[in-house]
Amino acid sequence: KQWYQRRVAITAGAGSKISLVCIANKKLSSAISWWVEVEGSEDKQILAVSNSITVEEEVNSDRVTEGTLTYLSAREEHSGRYYCKGEEKRSTNDMPLMIIATKDQEESLTVNDGVFFTLNCWSYKEDFEFTKDGSVFSAYTFEKTYSAVDLGHWEKKLLKVKLTDQQDGKFECVSMFDTFKVSSFIYNIDVVPLGDTVLTPTEGYPMIPLGTDLTITCNLVAIAEVNLIWMKDDKEVNDRYYENEYEEDISTQTSVLILENVIVAESGSYSCMTVDQGSASSVDVKIFDPKDFTYIETKFEVVSTEVEFVCYGVSGEDITVTWAGETVELTDDDYEKKKVPTATLR
């Protein structure tokens, strides 16, 4: 009384006529029914649909029952694991069905020179090819994630790519299964250079009193997230002193450097740049002790123009300010002294 299903794995292109066959070695008291597994839910029975799906059954002279499920024009959503039932018994083997529809997608992208970005690509097992302008392009890494309909071999690939301004062009990821072209993701990519990072001064900058906090903000207009780093006198600053954030709505990468309770040794040239040390901007920061402060500034101006020097001291009371010029005699009439009600050097 045992009956069984032919174990035949079928792979075909969308639009093909597909038939699944069940065989029982006796005449059954009930009709053969067809089912497909549904993940996380009850399995779904497949019923005949006019001009689309047929369900047939035949008992031959040897009293063998044969049931046939036919998709007249299979679609991708018909993929799944099928089985049949007879007399409330499930077939001993399942039948995987994979319907492959060609998925051609094309889009245009603009990316930044030297910045990583990702591209989508589907493949069956490892069978795919990534090309640039028709030639194999291998400068990428990728991650894998299985598709929702897990038939054991499908993989979604996120290709991680970084291009130079000489590498724009037509990129294509083509996946094949046997003779079936599964998908083709086409990307027309334009590579544009990054601009320069822009440093934002803050109060007390770039002359910073000893023991106060130093905050410098770095902004970079970028199409995608960029990893910014900070350097001090050509040595990398520990990343615990700064935070990076990408603001997609304004296409801007921001990095904020914060040094608390600064000391004199933290004086130096601070630079913000991309990881490959491009798109850099820098500023010289001087940490000084207000108790021992002499400020020297050199200016080059056209003869007969007005030259202005500004000196600020840190004190809650009036302080004595002495101006000195190497070859110039200065009197009180040459400068104006104003009391600023704050203990912050400006």
What does this structure look like?
By secondary structure, the protein is mainly beta. The protein is built from no helices and 27 strands. The strands form six sheets. Strands 2, 4, 5, 8, 9 and 10 form a six-stranded mixed sheet that branches. The chain starts with a strand and ends in a 58-residue tail after the last strand.
Order of helices and strands: EEEEEEEEEEEEEEEEEEEEEEEEEEE
User: What's the alpha carbon Rg, rounded to whole Å?
Assistant: 37 Å
* Discrete helix count: 0
Strand runs, count: 27
Q: Which regions are unreliable across 5 or more consecutive residues at pLDDT < 50?
A: 1-8, 148-152, 339-346
Biggest β-sheet description: 6 strands, mixed
Query: Quick check: average pLDDT?
Result: 79
Q: Could you estimate the helical fraction of the residues in percent?
A: under 10%
Shape: rod-shaped
**Cα distance, first to last residue?**
96 Å
What class do helices, strands and sheet pairing give? mainly beta
Percentage beta strand: over 45%
Write the layout of secondary structure elements.
Blueprint: E1 3-5, E2 10-13, E3 18-24, E4 33-36, E5 44-46, E6 53-59, E7 65-71, E8 80-86, E9 89-90, E10 95-100, E11 103-112, E12 117-124, E13 128-132, E14 135-136, E15 140-146, E16 154-161, E17 169-177, E18 180-192, E19 198-200, E20 207-209, E21 214-221, E22 228-232, E23 235-236, E24 242-247, E25 252-259, E26 268-274, E27 281-288
